[in-house]
Amino acid sequence: MSINLRLRHPKGVSTVSVNPEAPITELQQIIFSNTEISPSHQELKTGYPPKPLTVEPQLPVSSLGLKNGDQLIVTASPASKATVTTSMANQASTAGRQTPNFSAPALEPRLDPRQEKPSDASVQTPDGTLVHRVVPDDNSCLFSSIGLIFEQDMNVVPRLRQVVVDAIRKDPDTYSDAFLGQPRDNYIKTISKPSSWGGAIELSIFSKYYATEISSFDVETGRCDRFGEGQYDNRVILLYSGIHYDAVSLTPVPDAPLDFHTTIFPVSSEAIMQGAAQMATKLRAKKAYTNTATFDLKCERCGKGLKGEKEARQHAAETGHAEFGEY
Questions:
Q1: Catalytic residue among 244, 246, 261, 315
Q2: Class of domain 113-290
Q3: Which listed residue (153, 218, 224, 321) is catalytic?
Q4: Is 321 a catalytic residue?
């Protein structure tokens, strides 16, 4: 029976399958086909924090101690980096000679994690540096943060909204009109829109969907809301500013590429929780939050002025309007 492994490498992220009883050479060839790093130059790490693996090519893959779903970090030894760079440059040159297909429909620009806004609220921990990952302020920040953390991709927002819709539809007992604060059909219609914010309901759904605790630190109060607390072995970290969610990741060294950041942590790591709390404190000192009880909003649909999140939610329940802007 094969196991699935998530490869993180200089060219991106890949998911591969391998038979644990196959020789490690087979895994090396699979890695080569995804990364173009030859087996003799592959450096493999896994675990938290990442630790190098001792590779004996003739032994079975099971000797590496890898389990289904584990992350395998692949880097090239210094001697091979020039070869990889040359190969990628050749690919780019070939791609540039392809004939454009003008009949294809225009695509919306994809969000690139490398275009995240910088933040100086990083925190040093015994395991590395916790980094504040600022996602776009576009009403989908919760979904973008979840996509960044679990999928390393902020372009999965439409699919993540559908995950929420499916969960609500499949469980009418849990997600009743009373629980949602409005008719189920209205909630489903609203949360499907790109302009609609997500919140606690969505975080509880994603915790179950990914079988991972989601710890959300409130910047203004320092409170940590934990979804799936005590149910799972791993957790992820979000920062909540009152009207915006951002992600948190861990980098082994300050200048490591984003592909090598860790976003899922064992619940046993108190250092990570302490570091996230310190990060929230740093942001609070900079007033990087909005008091949702008192801030002024305007309904973008009808123009009505509203005071705070409570009035906004009430207005949404009464009218179905879900697009709000801050005055």
A1: 244
A2: alpha beta
A3: 321
A4: yes
**Three-class SS of residue 212?**
coil
132 a catalytic residue: no
Inter-CA distances, 105 with 95, 101, 108, Å: 19, 9, 10
What single letter denotes the amino acid at residue 78? P
Q: Domain extents for the chain?
A: 3-78, 113-290, 291-327
Handedness of CA 187, 189, 191, 195 (dihedral sign): negative
Per the prediction, the chain carries an average pLDDT of 81
List the catalytic residue out of 138, 153, 218, 225.
138
Q: Are 192 and 161 in contact (CB under 8 A)?
A: yes
Give yes or no for residue 139 having a pLDDT over 50: yes
Give residue-wise pLDDT tens across range 235-276.
Answer: 999 999 887 899 999 998 877 787 788 999 999 999 999 999
Which is more confident, 13 or 17? 17
The answer to whether residue 138 is catalytic is yes
- Choosing from 9, 132, 141, 299, the catalytic residue is 141
* 37 contacts: CB under 8 Å, gap ≥ 6: 9, 10, 31, 74, 75, 76, 80, 84
Q: What is the DSSP letter of 176?
A: -
Tell me, yes or no, if 41 is annotated catalytic.
Answer: no
3-78 — its CATH code?
A: 3.10.20.90
Q: What stretch of H or E contains 228?
A: none
